[in-house]
Specification:
The chain is an alpha/beta fold and 243 residues long. It folds into two domains: 158 residues, P-loop containing nucleotide triphosphate hydrolases (Rossmann fold, 3-Layer(aba) Sandwich); 68 residues, no CATH class. It is built from nine helices and ten strands. The strands form two sheets. The chain has a six-stranded mixed β-sheet, with helices on both faces. Strands 2-1-4-5 form a four-stranded antiparallel β-sheet, with helices on one face. Helix 3 packs across helix 4 and helix 3 runs parallel beside helix 5. The structure holds adenosine-5'-triphosphate (ATP). The site of adenosine-5'-triphosphate has 12 residues, from strand 2 and helix 1. InterPro entries: AAA+_ATPase, ABC_AA/LPS_Transport, ABC_transporter-like_ATP-bd, P-loop_NTPase. GO terms for molecular function: ATP binding; ATP hydrolysis activity. Keywords: ATP-binding, Nucleotide-binding, Transport.
Length: 243
């Protein structure tokens, strides 16, 4: 991967208005193949709206999104998923009454034969560290384990780019540590963009960080540089622990 490689994903002047509110303001963004990028920024900065345009949940007011050299702005979510972008939102997407294996098998079954889906589900269960709980209804799992099932369901679609919206929210310290490990493993073969508020978690996973502020990009650099920056401290970190 070099800076001269064609980006996996890029946006140009990407804009989203809600009535008079400019939620995302002419954002130019670029992600290299295989990259792991964290998005941070204060509440209301536009991160979720940006994500929802990438995944097709929102149709941008203006601007372009290019994924693997194809224009995808305004495409339907299922088309974008088929092209290789998988998203885990903050809204739960699991079937609580089905067990762990069934949830992941169903996600894999969308594009595979029953036997291939079984093999994929078995591999994913190992990766998300839930093989030993495969027959437990998802509703009986801890919050952190349910998040891993959701990540597993995204992986079952075999995306080249994974979007995760606050994957460590509400997790215990141990679950957060395991999630960071899991994300590193996923990044061995896939690109990721992760919206996250937990600075300690960002330190565990991040290489490069993009800071959103008032709908635009305030700064983009290596995690250490960003977390030390005075402007970022002023608009975002405030009283947060970042030492
Ligand atoms: N569906 C909507 N209708 C109207 N305004 C919206 C809508 N979604 C977001 N906004 C507004 O757009 C701006 C950006 O919101 P967004 O949720 O994208 O920020 P965020 O950075 O994801 O914040 P948070 O960290 O709290 O999730 C905010 O001013 C918000 O109030």
């Amino acid at each position: 991967m070099t800076d001269t490689a064609a980006p996996l994903l890029s946006t140009r002047s990407l804009t989203m208005l809600f009535g008079g509110v400019v939620a995302v303001d002419a954002v130019d963004f670029s992600l290299a193949p295989g990259e792991l990028r964290c998005l941070i920024g204060p509440n209301g900065a536009g991160k979720s709206t940006f994500f929802k345009m990438l995944s097709g949940q929102y149709v941008p007011t203006a601007g372009e999104i290019t994924f693997r050299s194809r224009s995808i702005a305004g495409s339907a979510p299922h088309e974008i998923a088929r092209l290789g972008i998988g998203i885990k939102t903050q809204v739960p997407n699991v079937f609580n009454g089905l067990d762990v294996h069934e949830n992941i098998w169903l996600a894999a079954r969308r594009r595979n034969s029953p036997s291939t889906a079984r093999r994929i589900a078995r591999d994913i269960l190992e990766r998300i560290r839930l093989s030993h709980r495969s027959m437990v209804p998802v509703g009986h799992l801890s919050h952190g384990q349910r998040q891993w099932v959701e990540i597993g369901m995204v992986l079952a679609g075999d995306p080249e780019l994974v979007l995760l919206d606050e994957p460590a929210a509400g997790m215990t310290d141990e679950e957060t540590r395991l999630t960071a490990e899991l994300i590193r493993e996923i990044n061995a073969s896939r690109a990721l963009i992760i919206v996250e508020h937990d600075i300690q978690f960002i330190r565990m996973i991040a290489d490069k960080v993009t800071v959103f502020h008032q709908g635009g990009i305030l700064m983009e650099d290596k995690a250490d540089t960003v977390l030390k920056d005075q402007r970022v401290r002023d608009v975002y970190l405030g009283k947060k622990e970042y030492a």
